[in-house]
Fold Phytanoyl-CoA dioxygenase family protein.
Amino acid sequence: MKSLDTPYVLAPEEIEFYQKNRFIKLKNVFDADTLAQYNAVISRQVEKMNTVTTALDERDTYGKAFLQLFNLWRENEAVKEFVFSKRLAKIAADLMQVDGVRMYHDQALFKEGGGGITPWHADQYYWPLSSDKTITAWIPLQPVPLDMGPLEFSAGSHQIVEGRELSIGDASEKLIAEKLRVTDFEHVIEPFDLGEVSFHSGWVFHRAGANITDHVRKVMTVIYMDKDMVLQQPINKNQENDWHTWCPGATVGEVINTELNPVMY
């Protein structure tokens, strides 16, 4: 569809805002028809791939946060069309001020009705990547009011080193919240309109509230990295696992250039 590849022109002040805060929310990235089409496609693929059978109230905090399915683009050509949107990829490159971006991986994050919080965390704890030139597009497939658990950000918190060593869970929610409470970083909690997409860097701290509605909060995400990103030696077991899962065959100290990491723009 045309809207998937039509350039989205960023204003200089939007790029400046992202560089300062390491997140931004952009309105009207996709139109209603495009989102309706891919909502149906992605929802069917999530249903097909989902293997979670444990009741919501029997799961741990992470399990209650969302159903999480990875690399849908490898399983479904229609999903791949959406994930490989040049419109999205160019926004990612322009915000990071890099010449081009590669795929790290995609993931669907479906927070079920009654689903719990997504604890405070920084994504790049999990990634064996040598620079902070990483960005995630968080794409709601429908409007997300506050009671559905939209993504929240601590603006500019990429400057904080404390908390980067924490995996997502009860400890990260408690300890990062305590740290952020004594800083001047603005806590941004806002609903998402239909067609609104956020972009955030790997080291900015973020969370999401519980979904207290009866409806699933359906979100698709695409994680991009600088096309010249170099694989670093993993510093924890999660990074070791990510290396072999999302960058199989990549070599430490060299640019990540595998069939799972194509240049998107």
Observations:
- The CA atoms of residues 35 and 104 lie 23 Å apart.
- The beta strands are 23-26, 67-70, 101-111, 118-121, 134-140, 151-154, 187-189, 197-201, 206-208, 217-226.
